[in-house]
Structure formats: structure tokens, C-alpha cells
Amino acid sequence: MIDADLHIRLADGTRLRDDRIISAAVYRLDGRGEVEDHWYTLVNPERDPGPVWIHGLTSEVLEGAPLFTDIAEEFSARLDGRVLVAHNAVFDWQMIAREYARAKAEAPVRQRLCTIALSKELGLPLPNHKLETLAAHFGVVQQRAHHALDDARVLAEAFRPSLRAAAAGNVRLPLLECRPLTEWSDTPRIGQQASGGYRPSSWRPSRRRPACPYPNPGRYEDGKPLRQGMRVAFSGDTSVDRELLEDRAAEAGLHVSASISRLTSLLVTNDPDSGTSKVVKARQFGTPVVDEAAFGQLLRDVAPVSEE
Fold first, then answer.
1. Considering 159, 181, 300, 308, which has the largest number of Cβ atoms within 10 A of its Cβ?
2. Is beta strand 289-290 parallel, antiparallel or unpaired with respect to 266-269?
3. Burial profile 189-200: b = 16 or more Cβ within 10 angstroms, e = fewer
């Protein structure tokens, strides 16, 4: 079995950590990309459903839907032993991992495949990497854009010829590890509201950390401690929730950066061969790279700015 093609719809769409799944669709495919079966469900996010003008799912529609905890077992049965295939798969995986963490469970997925990455590996002549563009390239007709079930169908039908093209051209499938969350906190923070119940008119502002008060002392050097003020960036899955990890870095006096530049002191990633834009830039700039475990050890003893 090669995969479970998946598409999810989210409540909000502005802040990944606080977004919730409001509908999910799974197409299960065999090793040749042929459809075995499909499944779809609405999910009650217990909060504002976000941009209704895009997905059409109102609070009234979702109020009677099952909670994620109610569908987690069936969802797991659909995903168990499969490769998760999605368009921008890291985003879908992070959402799934967070929902399972909230439910105090773990998704039975160990690998994912991003159809954006696969289209790049195949060298498809696409003007952009939108799902509708990939679909049009293979002559797949969308019937209900922004509906999870139809989006999953479109992705499955576009994936089949991609899979066959990869096999014919001996192209490596860009498989990546799915790393489940082992530590998660749903505690609301300053500038956030609790997620209990719908608040249709409420939109939370983006969460911003205070500016790092320390100057950047330069790049991290292997074998030496981190120093306050160093610029740290993160890429890919982490077993500790990303925001918790970033909070700990900031509390230790590090500058958490959303991007990589020549001033970045350190990149933290568990997938150094993933080919993400951050990893590629880190290689170009010669930015040091460590994994999550090593970074956790370094966080225990961050040198103050006064130390050389």
C-alpha cells in the first residue's frame, strides 16, 4: 500500500498552532495509485470556524458534527500503515499531529509525501504549485474547490499519473519522516483566547514575542555553548511542539527567527536532508545545523552575554 491521500479544512487559517480541523477527507490508494475507498467527515472545532466565505462551513453546520476525539479512531484506521500524501504535506501533518496531541493520542503515520515536492522532482512545467494548477496539468477537473472531499479526490487523481511518471523515470519519491508530538500545551497565552466554544466574531491577533534584548554574538560553534543573542531558526517536524520549543529558546535569551540569513547562528532540524528552503539556505550560508535532541541539551546551558 502506498498511501492515504488526504485533505483537511481548518478553522481560521491564520495561526497554525490554534487552528483546528473542521473537515477531513481521506482517499486510500493501492501501490499503483488506484482508489480503494474514500471517507469524509465534518469536525466540530469547538471554536470560530474561521473564513466561512472560503470553506462554507458555518458554526451552525459544525455544531452537530463530531469532535476530533470522536473520529480519531476511525481516522487512525484510515491512516494506519500508510504513507500520508498531501499537497504541502508538512502543513497537513502538523495539523494532524496537533489534533492527536490534544486528544492525548498519536497518529499511526510514519512517512509523508508532498505532491509539491514530487512535482519538482519530476520537473513538471507548472507556473506555480497550487493544487488546481497540478490538477489542470493532468486534466483533472475540480468540482467543488475548497471542499475537503473533492480536494482529496483531485489530489488522488493527480497523484496517480505523478506516481507512474516517477516509476517510469526512476525518480526517487520524496518521502519524509512524520515525527509525532511528544509534548504539547493547550494553555492560552497573552493575546490569545481560550478555545472553548464558538466565538464567531472574535479573531485573535498574531502572537509576537518581545524583541531579543541581546546583540547577536555570531554563529554557533560546535563543542561550545550557545550564547544569549544568537539567532536560531527551526525547520520541519519536532517532537516537542514548535511554539514550546521556540518559547524555551526565547526564555534562554536566544533570538528566534522565522527565516534563514547570513546572520543566523544556528538551524534546528530533524531532517537535514529534507531540501526545505531553510535547509537549502543554511547550506548556502554555511549556517551550523543541529537536531532537536542536541538543541535541547544546548538549551540547558546557554552562556550569558557577559561570558566569552
1. 159
2. parallel
3. eeeeeebeebee
90-93: long-range contacts at Cβ-Cβ below 8 A with a sequence spacing of 24 or more? 90/114, 90/176, 90/236, 90/237, 91/16, 92/6, 92/7, 92/8, 93/178, 93/237
**Burial zone of 171 (CB within 10 Å; 0-12 exposed, 13-18 middle, 19+ buried):** middle
Over the stretch 128-175, which tens digit does the pLDDT of each residue have? 989 999 999 999 998 888 889 999 999 999 999 999 999 999 999 999
Tens of pLDDT, residues 54-83: 788 888 989 999 999 999 999 999 999 999
| Pure H helices in 178-273 | 242-251
Helix axes 292-299, 242-251, angle to 10 degrees: 30
Residue 41 parent element (H or E) = strand 35-42
For residue 112, the one-letter residue type is: R
- The residue count of the chain comes to 308
CA distances from 51 to 15, 81, 128, 170, 227 (A): 13, 33, 24, 42, 42
Cα separation, 138 vs 20, in Å, equals 31
What DSSP designation does 183 have? B
Distance CA 17, CA 243 (A): 8
Check: CB of residue 101 under 8 Å from CB of residue 241.
yes
Give the DSSP letter string of 214-227.
Answer: S-------TTS--B
Q: Is the pTM of this model over 0.85?
A: no
